[in-house]
Amino acid sequence: MEFTNPQRAEVLIEALPYIQKYNDKIVVVKYGGGAMKNDDLKHKVMGDIVLLSLIGVKVVLVHGGGPEITDTLGKLGMESKFLNGLRVTDADTAKIVQMVLAGKTNKDLVSILQSVGGKAIGLCGIDGGMISATMKDENLGYVGEITDFDPTPVLNTLDSGYIPVIATLGCDSEGNVYNINADTAAAKIAATLGAESLISLTDTSGILRDPSDKTSTIPVINVDEAYKLVDEGIISGGMIPKVDCCVNAVREGVKKVFIIDGSIPHSLIVEMLTDEGIGTMFH
After folding, report:
1. Domain 22-282, CATH number (from 3.40.1160.10, 1.50.10.10, 3.40.50.2000, 2.60.120.10)
2. What's the predicted TM-score (pTM) here?
3. If both were cysteines, with which of 29, 90, 125, 145 could 136 make a disulfide (CB 3.0 to 4.6 Å apart)?
4. pLDDT for 211-255, tens place per residue?
């Protein structure tokens, strides 16, 4: 479909109030492992983030990397085990998680951002003692529960004109490194930074009223209603911890939280800069 020049101008004019709204505001984007599998799509998402940065949005990118960790463990002959949706992380697995998240995945995203015209700096929660953590559950091993988040490295990066790209690892005072759930970390980071929005890019189209019908997305959920949907079985399985993080972020001061389908090209731009919107918003 070809757009005429007046139609292109109309699209830009429609985006203007949203550009004004988000200008100089912090937006945390959580980029999930399930939405990171396609390289072409990954380049489109990074292009969207660079565009937002260039129009004055202070984007903080928080990423997971579960599928890549699982793939690497498999290549090394190590089994992936999960308990209540969290990766069981023994000492050897923790080393692989650190290598993949802070090394390969983080730097790949920084490289792509810079290849499409952005300025980015890769960080992980260990840097500057940014994410302090303690062991969440002995049965999970080195899976961390956040005890404190120091925003200083992120704010310094933003103030220098760079996009911070954060791998969700944490450490304690004894130097133990913990694997932190990326949804949990993104919610804590967004709340501490006083973010305008937290947007979670996943491989689902949001909260579905009927899981078998992809067109049944619930567009808006008040956080007080969220757990009624859990009780009704509409929100279930692996979506429950994601919803927990969304609810916590709103209750800790993030104005709007979104779950959107990161596998749709430019869904981030559609959500932020158009009247249409996409996915589910928590408020």
Report:
1. 3.40.1160.10
2. 0.93
3. 145
4. 778 788 899 999 888 888 988 888 887 788 888 899 999 999 999
